């Protein structure tokens, strides 16, 4: 569907949310799909534009989630669709470890050229974000000959066994799924709202390293802005401090840009805001424009430390996903795109920051670019108010705006609009969000909707 084929009177609701067709399909789902899968909003999608999702009942919802930062160029981007359609006509798969195809090499070259740092680089393509994290650890271990992995508080790195161990939040990600791989150590985070001063945090991290032994750790893995952990922008100096420590102890610095990368924060990579260059940088989510694709990109001497045959995967760098990524790159190279992301941040701050003075339970508006969050907490004690975040999100959903929550305590609303969202549609979505905050906060905890407590997925 052409993004301009509809009048921009959205959200456009023709039934309650979810509507009768979505409800019927959701009932069928219950009989067919494992109960282990959660859902943020039980609405079934039939079509999409650059800014909206259209459900099976004909409701058009404003998309402030991008499928968790995946459809950054929109869920129906013409460049992605055309390239994938053309590739489907040629062939769907060979397995890159069996016979090669050009798209894999072109994606690797683009990432080598566009990730921070002018050193010689190599890239490995995989399928999911968790796989990229696991492969970064494999590569760092092969390069250093060490086992240990350092991660920070509130981190999210995935749902596989190793990445569950690296993820901080217990429920729903780890509950009943252990035991986990050993050799993962967690260090404090420089969370400006709740954490200790940066110098103390860095000193504590060095102490942990010395306690384990200066040659214990292969990799230090960190998100430059935490995703699931609550869109925590680390205090200034934290990432450069980690860079220093990693150099000092010969640890591979792995920057997990799976959620924050590829234009999301107004720079191509969030680590650029602090001028920090990773040894290995991880991308996924937005990389494939909705098709499953992930990458590890980094210093040639580290990436090439692995023996031939040591890396791979049946679907790693699938040809359809590589063509989709090449379409995504065309959108990212448009010189108008990053300024557009800066305008998204301006619009969100302009609309939400006045609420800081209006409501003392609005604890912080934070983030960068199109990766913005509202945290709800009691004044003074900062006791998390997940009831408010869940209530606001439920009110947005009922009014046709798709929002997500996040945070260790589930008390944060996160906004991840497509980077190409129509500015009038974003404004309409923010109006509804502000109304939802006003009515939920003014109504107190009793006005929140009881069944809106399911966790978001990543
Ligand atoms: C989503 C996410 C992952 C895991 O990616 P999957 O594709 O779900 O395996 C890892 N790290 C971060 C920061 C993420 O946001």
From TrEMBL:
<dbReference type="GO" id="GO:0047298">
    <property type="term" value="F:(S)-3-amino-2-methylpropionate transaminase activity"/>
</dbReference>
<comment type="similarity">
    <text>Belongs to the class-III pyridoxal-phosphate-dependent aminotransferase family.</text>
</comment>
<dbReference type="InterPro" id="IPR015422">
    <property type="entry name" value="PyrdxlP-dep_Trfase_small"/>
</dbReference>
<dbReference type="GO" id="GO:0047589">
    <property type="term" value="F:5-aminovalerate transaminase activity"/>
</dbReference>
<keyword id="KW-0032">Aminotransferase</keyword>
<dbReference type="GO" id="GO:0034386">
    <property type="term" value="F:4-aminobutyrate:2-oxoglutarate transaminase activity"/>
</dbReference>
<dbReference type="InterPro" id="IPR049704">
    <property type="entry name" value="Aminotrans_3_PPA_site"/>
</dbReference>
<dbReference type="InterPro" id="IPR015424">
    <property type="entry name" value="PyrdxlP-dep_Trfase"/>
</dbReference>
<dbReference type="InterPro" id="IPR005814">
    <property type="entry name" value="Aminotrans_3"/>
</dbReference>
<keyword id="KW-0663">Pyridoxal phosphate</keyword>
<dbReference type="InterPro" id="IPR050103">
    <property type="entry name" value="Class-III_PLP-dep_AT"/>
</dbReference>
<keyword id="KW-0808">Transferase</keyword>
<dbReference type="InterPro" id="IPR015421">
    <property type="entry name" value="PyrdxlP-dep_Trfase_major"/>
</dbReference>
<protein>
    <submittedName>
        <fullName>4-aminobutyrate aminotransferase/(S)-3-amino-2-methylpropionate transaminase</fullName>
        <ecNumber>2.6.1.19</ecNumber>
        <ecNumber>2.6.1.22</ecNumber>
        <ecNumber>2.6.1.48</ecNumber>
    </submittedName>
</protein>
<dbReference type="Pfam" id="PF00202">
    <property type="entry name" value="Aminotran_3"/>
</dbReference>
């Amino acid at each position: 569907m052409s993004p301009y084929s509809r009048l921009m009177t959205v959200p456009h609701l023709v039934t309650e949310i979810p509507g009768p067709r979505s409800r019927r399909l959701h009932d069928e789902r219950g009989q067919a799909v494992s109960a282990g899968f959660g859902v943020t909003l039980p609405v079934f999608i039939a079509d999409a534009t650059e800014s909206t999702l259209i459900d099976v009942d004909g409701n058009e919802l404003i998309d402030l989630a991008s499928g968790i930062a995946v459809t950054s160029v929109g869920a129906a981007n013409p460049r992605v669709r055309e390239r994938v359609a053309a590739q489907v006509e040629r062939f769907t798969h060979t397995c890159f470890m069996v016979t090669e195809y050009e798209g894999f090499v072109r994606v690797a070259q683009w990432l080598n050229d566009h990730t921070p740092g002018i050193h010689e680089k190599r890239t490995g393509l995989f399928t999911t974000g968790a796989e990229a994290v696991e492969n970064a650890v494999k590569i760092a271990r092969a390069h250093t000959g060490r086992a240990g992995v350092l991660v920070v508080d509130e981190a999210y790195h995935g749902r596989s066994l190793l990445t569950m161990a690296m993820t901080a939040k217990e429920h729903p990600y780890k509950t009943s799924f252990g035991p986990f791989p050993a050799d993962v150590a967690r260090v404090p985070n420089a969370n400006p709202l709740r954490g200790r001063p940066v110098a103390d945090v860095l000193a504590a991290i060095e102490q942990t390293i010395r306690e384990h032994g200066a040659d214990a750790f292969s990799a230090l893995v960190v998100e430059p802005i935490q995703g699931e952990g609550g869109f925590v922008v680390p205090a200034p100096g934290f990432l450069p401090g980690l860079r220093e420590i990693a150099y000092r102890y010969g640890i591979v610095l792995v920057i997990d840009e799976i959620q924050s990368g590829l234009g999301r924060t107004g720079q191509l990579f969030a680590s650029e805001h602090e001028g920090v260059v990773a040894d290995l940088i991880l991308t996924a989510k937005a990389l494939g424009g909705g098709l499953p694709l992930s990458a590890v990109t980094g210093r040639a001497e580290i990436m090439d430390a692995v023996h031939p045959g040591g890396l791979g995967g049946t679907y790693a760098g699938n040809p359809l996903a590589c063509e989709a990524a090449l379409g995504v790159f065309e959108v990212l190279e448009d010189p108008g795109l990053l300024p557009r992301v800066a305008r998204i941040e301006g619009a969100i701050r302009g609309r939400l920051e006045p609420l800081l003075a209006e409501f003392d339970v609005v604890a912080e508006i934070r983030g960068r670019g199109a990766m913005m969050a509202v945290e709800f907490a009691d004044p003074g004690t900062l006791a998390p108010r997940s009831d408010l975040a869940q209530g606001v999100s439920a009110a947005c959903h009922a009014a046709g705006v798709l929002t997500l929550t996040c945070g260790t305590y589930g008390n944060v609303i996160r906004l991840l609009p497509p980077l190409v969202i129509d500015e009038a549609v974003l404004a309409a979505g923010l109006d509804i969000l502000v109304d939802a905050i006003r009515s939920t906060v003014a109504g107190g905890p009793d006005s929140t909707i009881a069944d809106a407590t399911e966790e978001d997925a990543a």
